[in-house]
Amino acid sequence: MSLARADAEALDATDPLARFRDEFELPKGLIYLDGNSLGPPPKAVAARLADVVGGEWGRDLIRSWNLNGWMDAPLRTGGKIAALIGAAPHEVAVADSTTVNLFKLAAGALSLRPGRKVLLTPADNFPTDVYALEGLAGMVPGLELRIAEPERLVEAIDEATAAVVLTHVHYKTSLRWDLSEVTAAAHAKGALALWDLSHSVGALAVDLSLAKADLAVGCGYKYLNGGPGAPAFLFVAERHQAQIRSPLTGWMGHAEPFAFEGHYRPAPDIRAQVSGTPSVLGLAALEAGLDLQLQADPAQVEAKGLALAELFISLVEQRCAGHGLALLGPRESTRRGLHVSYAHPDGYALVQALIARGVIGDFRAPDVARFGFSPLYLSHAQVWDAVEILRDILETRAFDRADYRQRAAVT
Ligand SMILES: Cc1ncc(COP(=O)(O)O)c(C=O)c1O
Known about the structure:
The chain is an alpha/beta fold. It has two domains: about 5-40 and about 295-405, Aspartate Aminotransferase, domain 1 (Alpha-Beta Complex); about 70-295, Aspartate Aminotransferase, domain 2. It has 13 helices and 13 strands. It has helices spanning about 5-15, 45-60, 65, 75-85, 100-110, 125-140, 180-190, 210, 240, 280-295, 300-320, 345-355, 380-395, and strands at about 30, 90-95, 120, 145-150, 160-165, 190-195, 215-220, 235, 325, 340-345, 360, 360-365, 370. The strands form three sheets. The chain has a seven-stranded mixed sheet with strand order 2-8-7-6-5-3-4, sandwiched between helices. Strands 9-10-13-12 form a four-stranded antiparallel sheet. α7 links the parallel β5 (about 160-165) and β6 (about 190-195). It is globular and about 70 Å long.
């Protein structure tokens, strides 16, 4: 059955999340399909930042660390993220970047499994995850970084494995691993599971407690709309907090930072994972985004995001067939995240042509056009319009221009 724009409009009329659209700064007429890479600013962020800069920093100056909750921001903000990933508030902290947190927790996993000398990750994991593990393997004598083909990952877990490190939703294909299944498979061999939730947090209704996950990290600037380079988060299950050791033993993770003791003594809780001085401005922007996100029911967020992605896939099948687009990843929504990617021989030029027509997606080498369906500000009608523009560009070959093939540094 072919879908008309009126069908999409009908879905918008009963969308329980429709009111959130007005809470974002987004240029009129633009269809933003890149919130999975950099979310747009929630309107509340500008006012919040002005307050932190003018009021807190400008007026209260250094007293703000105590007066205005700056010191507590990593754990307070972590507690808000906890509500989105099925964790207890004291199991999550916000600090550093995803890369740094992944490094810290992968090293932490080794401290929780002494004697085990293998970290296992899928070959197609996000590059920074693999690179960070390579760096760690280069520093720890005897540590093996075992890289498995994704289909063979679970069977590659063995009694030498300290941790399996993998991304819940794949950054290109959108393939979603089963959190509970893989975690249980790791536990069956005495190993831990360290999840990268960068493409899940704020998108899917993740439940780390239900999955009995051990460790996790994730980005603040994608679906959480925390702003470019927003601080990232990390999760350590309560049962591991007393034993885990961070390789970055900075003063902010000390049991008493302002005792200025001569030697490191870890905080007994998640604070031990906060290595240095918190990035207050970044945290303030992220927290304002989280306060908005927390007003939405995570189950509704997931349901709408998957519905938007499914609508996009169905419309592309109906209207863009025969133009060389090959869907990556599984077809079923239950095995996907909220972004949809297609390989296309002219993928880069295609994305540039779409941007020129007001539809922003992104490109991932070597040939992938990727579109993210962030549920808080996108409508079903916008998805319909985006596919119509895509169809027109494909049929007219409007992408076939030399200037659209000039690659920028960031794709
Ligand atoms: C799965 C995944 N992990 C990590 C990152 C980025 O990490 P960082 O914020 O440290 O650059 C990304 C960025 O897109 C990602 O997709």
